[in-house]
Amino acid sequence: MAYSDKVVNHYENPQNVGSLDKNDPQVGTGLVGAPACGDVMKLQLKINDDGIIEDAKFKTFGCGSAIASSSLVTTMVKGKTIEEAEKIENSLIAEELALPPVKIHCSVLAEDAIKAAIADYRKKRGEA
Amino acid sequence: MSVKLPIYFDNQATTPVDPRVLDAMMPYLTEHFGNPASRNHAFGWAAKEAVEIAREQVAALIGASPKEIIFTSGATESDNLAIKGVARQYESRGKHIITVQTEHKAVLDSCHALERDGWEVTFLPVDREGLVDIDQLRDAIRDDTVLVSVMLANNEIGVVQPIREIGAICRERGVIFHCDAVQGLGKVPFDVVEDHVDLASISAHKMYGPKGIGALYVRRGRPRLRLRPLIDGGGHERGLRSGTLATHQIVGLGKAAELAAEDLVNGGIDKVRALRDRLWDGIRENLDEVYLNGSWEHRIPNNLNVSFAYVEGEAMMMGIKDIACSSGSACTSASLEPSYVLRALGVGAELAHSSIRFGLGRFNTEEEVDHAIGLIVEKVRWLREMSPLYEMVKEGIDLSSVQWSAH
Lengths: 128, 407
Ligand SMILES: Cc1ncc(COP(=O)(O)O)c(C=O)c1O
Prior knowledge:
heterodimer, A: alpha+beta, three-stranded antiparallel beta sheet, 5 helices, about 20% strand, globular, B: alpha/beta, seven-stranded mixed beta sheet, 13 helices, 13 strands, binds pyridoxal-5'-phosphate
């Protein structure tokens, strides 16, 4: 498999790897995928009272494209409002990274991770 | 000494052509370019003589007689010719074949093709070590069983099957026995007479010969064994494989076979084994939760197949891009399914996704192995720091208790 330069860049220099305190009420955690399928993404968003995403961290078990998709997503959501982040679609991620068709599911997973993290945050706030 | 990068550790996929092999081949492309079937001039005679020497070299590697060697385009063709050729010839005897779940696709898909023609195929399971159960194989033989096909050594995990015992059972029951010997030649002893093999597939490019050339051993003598050819034409190779012989390729195969046979007696293969063992020791001593796939004891000396838990195989290969190897991860296949070989051993999907195959070879060095160990250890640690699974396990979470969202 040949990788796009963007995938290689994100893979070699992944942005925002790490974890936030999952018990912090301002932190929403999304854990998507399954080990048996070969990819699991954990995306954490720290959201302030104005609904703006102040920080984002990820950890990913998956191929290079999955790691790159997660890394990219953390850079995309930072500074955005929840509503803006929710609108990020997988096609945008796939396009930005020039993912080949067999890797589209990585971008789908990254989109799911954003949604899951936001849902977790809302649940914590009693909004869901 | 500095190491030249990238390092080639994928010798089960293919091997470089040995310079001695290339030297032997070259004159047959230029000076001695004749057609071995040209019986009436010196160009033809020279080519013919070279082909017959190669036939002897190949025969000597497996304990056969030269007349029993049929040249093909490679082991894929040899497997097809053996399985379909027997099936078409012996249809009236019965329509049942026995093979194993971990065989190469060339064998499995030849069998699937026959299934579509009304044949029944038993795909025997293997144990956790990757070995077939002899008693299960014996019990699977029926009155209408025509052929048993079991490989010598597996291309992914290198596990060596008990060929001699299987051969003895087949001979006793009057069933034809085909063995895909590709990955085992020059690595472990193999003798068609002692192992009671009727048909054996050989490929040059897995033993430092060129791609696109192979052979099928077809036993002669009693009981008589006949095959229906797949390719019709000028009647070359006892009518079993028509087509002008690729002299230079055949010469390459012959020389490769000669060198492979020498490897077994002159310590060549022991050197490769030492490198393989050094690699495994270096990995095990520096990393926890690394798992060997397949039997250690019954294994070709050049193969190492390891799962690095919590690290996905393709991401791993990207990390160690200076080392050419391969992975059983789904992400490296078009099907998005992890290795069917590892699944047949009962390796969990998660560890199958984390597997890497290292295939050591004749031209690897200790320096390369040491460099590789350093890189592997560094990248596994780095990827584990990035792995949510590793983090969860360190927090004491049992991964099997988690409700994963399948996608
Ligand atoms: C066990 C086994 N059988 C058959 C083949 C096919 O050989 P060839 O590439 O010569 O067609 C291979 C190589 O991929 C192999 O490893």
